[in-house]
């Protein structure tokens, strides 16, 4: 039996992925089909391999080529580890903050319908931080930004993670440290930026249709949208590596999938509202639908 439980769910004798394609056809983004099927064929010796031969005993070993896809549970983990390792070597060895920008729950579907807004969303978050440091300290901070489109239940929940240097470079090329982030101000700025971003990109007809969502998102978030940036503790390299892995992590780790019975998938998650571990059981079709939304 296939050891990779995600491959079982998609490609076992029930052929759930093929059934999903037949049912939803053209509604599936082409890149999704490409990445899922790269994952299906990853590690298959029929698609190529390296032959290793021991010069002493002449023992041979075949190493299959890998797909290097972001959806692949094997390749994405290895790539993320390597990326975070390289990151710790290349960035400035100074204190960083892991900054998280979220949006109102009622706006999430807008970014699902208009995925072209996801890159500008990330850019606007980075611009807020950059503008603050330049106005307050006259320095340019270092920022690495990553977009997560998933929540703990694999639901669509776009939010921005950033690794931000606590300080920046002056025009003279000198380092100037700083370790304060004004959450109240940033929250209101972020709320304004997100609402303006949506209005700027959508047509008049679309804006009219979603106006109630925009108004509700404004009125029920009196302090602005949530912005979080806890102080990091410990050695700088360990901080950077942790944040790097977190930014690049997949929508769901294989250790969270608890059971697959051929028709249903059960997975565990931490509920952010009460901090408790919970379990959710969904059909395979629903599981696939949630998962492929997060393929960039």
Throw out a few tags for this protein.
single chain, globular, four-stranded antiparallel beta sheet, alpha+beta, 20% strand
Describe the fold and architecture:
With 296 residues, this protein is α+β, with helices and mostly antiparallel strands. The protein has a domain at 96-292. The protein is built from 10 helices and 11 strands. It has helices at residues 5-11, 16-24, 30-41, 73-90, 108-113, 118-137, 183-201, 204-219, 236-248, 284-292; strands at 49-53, 60-64, 96-101, 143-150, 156-165, 167-169, 175-177, 227-228, 257-260, 264-270, 277-283. Strands 4-5-3-8 form a 4-stranded antiparallel beta sheet, sandwiched between helices. A 3-stranded antiparallel beta sheet has the order 9-10-11. A hairpin with a 5-residue loop joins strand 4 and strand 5.
| Element order: H for helix, E for strand | HHHEEHEHHEEEEHHEHEEEH
What's the overall geometry?
A: globular
Q: Decide which structural class fits the backbone.
A: alpha+beta
Largest sheet descriptor:
4 strands, antiparallel
Count of helix runs: 10
Our Rg estimate from Cα atoms comes to 22 Å
Please give the share of residues in helix: 40-55%
Task: Identify the strand order in the major beta sheet.
Answer: 4-5-3-8
DSSP strand count? 11
């Amino acid at each position: 039996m296939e050891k990779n439980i995600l491959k079982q769910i998609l490609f076992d004798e029930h052929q759930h992925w093929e059934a999903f394609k037949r049912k939803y056809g053209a509604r599936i983004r082409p890149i999704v089909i490409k990445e899922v099927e790269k994952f299906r064929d990853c590690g298959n010796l029929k698609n190529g391999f390296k032959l290793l031969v021991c010069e002493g005993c002449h023992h041979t070993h075949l190493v299959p080529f890998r797909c290097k896809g972001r959806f692949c549970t094997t390749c994405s983990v290895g790539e993320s580890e390597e990326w975070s390792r390289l990151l710790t070597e290349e960035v400035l060895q100074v204190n960083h903050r892991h900054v998280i920008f979220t949006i109102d729950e009622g706006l999430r579907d807008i970014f699902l319908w208009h995925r072209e807004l996801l890159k500008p969303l990330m850019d606007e978050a980075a611009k807020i931080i950059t503008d603050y440091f330049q106005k307050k300290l006259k320095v340019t901070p270092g920022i690495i930004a990553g977009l997560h489109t998933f929540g703990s239940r694999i639901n669509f929940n776009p939010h921005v993670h950033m690794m931000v240097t606590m300080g920046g470079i002056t025009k003279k090329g000198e380092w100037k440290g700083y370790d304060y982030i004004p959450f109240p101000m940033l929250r209101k700025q972020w709320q304004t930026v997100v609402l303006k971003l949506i209005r700027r990109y959508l047509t008049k007809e679309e804006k009219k249709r979603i106006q109630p969502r925009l108004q509700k998102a404004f009125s029920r978030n009196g302090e602005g949208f949530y912005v979080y940036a806890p102080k990091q503790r410990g050695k700088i390299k360990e901080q950077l590596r942790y944040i790097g892995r977190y930014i690049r992590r997949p929508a769901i780790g294989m250790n969270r999938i608890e059971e697959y019975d051929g028709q249903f998938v059960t997975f565990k998650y931490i509920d952010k509202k009460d901090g408790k571990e919970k379990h959710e059981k969904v059909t395979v079709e629903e599981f696939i639908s949630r998962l492929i939304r997060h393929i960039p």
